[in-house]
Amino acid sequence: MWAAKVTNQEIMVNDSSFSFGSDLRTRISDNLDVFERRSHPNDGLKRAAVAVVVVDNGTGDGALVLTKRSSRLRAHTSQWALPGGRLDEGETPIDAVLRELSEEVNVSLSPDHVLGTLDDYPTRSGYLITPVVVWADPEIEMIANPDEVASIHRISFRELNRSDSPNFITIPESERPVIQMLFNDSRVHAPTGAVMYQFREVGLHGRDVRVDQMEQPVWAWK
After folding, report:
1. Is CB count within 10 Å lower at the N or C end of the chain?
2. Inter-residue contact 159 to 184 (CB < 8 Å)
């Protein structure tokens, strides 16, 4: 069974619980420590990793980093994405995420910034994605690599927890629900939307929520 939409009451949190600082870092780290992440066998899939980067939103609250992919890329151009990419030979997901953060948004972080990992997500396009949650210092300055990233956005945790998100839709091509995470006037689909949702539920609220059964829109299957 797939997770039902979270009600307004369930996601109500005190404003101060989203303040960027040591209490937020400890809460996310502790929630990830007790979470029994689900791994998947490769089964011919290419290994990849994405970074769920926790940052200051500019006004003292927590946020995550979301990018818009460059139109110069060969696949999935101009789509919403978390920083990340395919693992190089001999790399771990953590190695890949730290390298991709440097390459895509000019941010250098160490393994000490890693707070934990979420469930593997197998994609229709042939990848097995491992999400890695990392903490970034308040003074972080991100610069988009124009060959890979068109723009960089900080999505506040208040926006991540809005009462009308996520949205689930059905498609004739699959029995599985397609998840859409909403922010501003945009909709972020799986796999990125699924990772954002699981981070919200597990990292911020300590709930045991799985997302690998959630579907992607057909246009993302290639």
Report:
1. N
2. yes
Q: pLDDT (tens digit, 9 = 90+) per residue, 82-104?
A: 999 999 999 999 999 999 999 99
Cβ 80 vs Cβ 161: under 8 Å:
no
Tokens of 99: 């390298």
- Neighbour-count burial for 82-98, b at 16+ CB within 10 Å, e otherwise: bbbbebeeeeebbebbb
Q: What is the biggest distance separating any 2 CA atoms in the chain, rounded to whole angstroms?
A: 46
In this structure, the number of other CB atoms found within 10 A of the CB of residue 218 comes to: 13
Which homologous superfamily does the CATH classification assign to the domain defined by 17-220?
A: Nucleoside Triphosphate Pyrophosphohydrolase (3.90.79.10)
Written as one string, the DSSP assignment of 113-171 is GEEEE---EE-TTSEEEEEEEEE--TT------TTTEEEEEEEEHHHHT-TT--EEEEE
pLDDT digits (tens, 9 = 90+) for 18-50: 999 999 999 999 999 999 999 998 888 999 999
Residue among 207, 157, 168 at smallest CA distance from 31: 207
> Distance (Å, rounded) from C-alpha 196 to C-alpha 66?
10
Percentage of the chain surpassing pLDDT 70? Answer: 89
The domain spans of the chain are: 17-220
Residue 105 DSSP one-character state:
H
Question: Could you give the 3-state DSSP secondary structure of residue 6?
Answer: coil
Q: Which residue has the tokens 């300055």?
A: 141
Using CA atoms of 115, 157, 71, 174 in order, give the dihedral in degrees to the nearest 10: 90
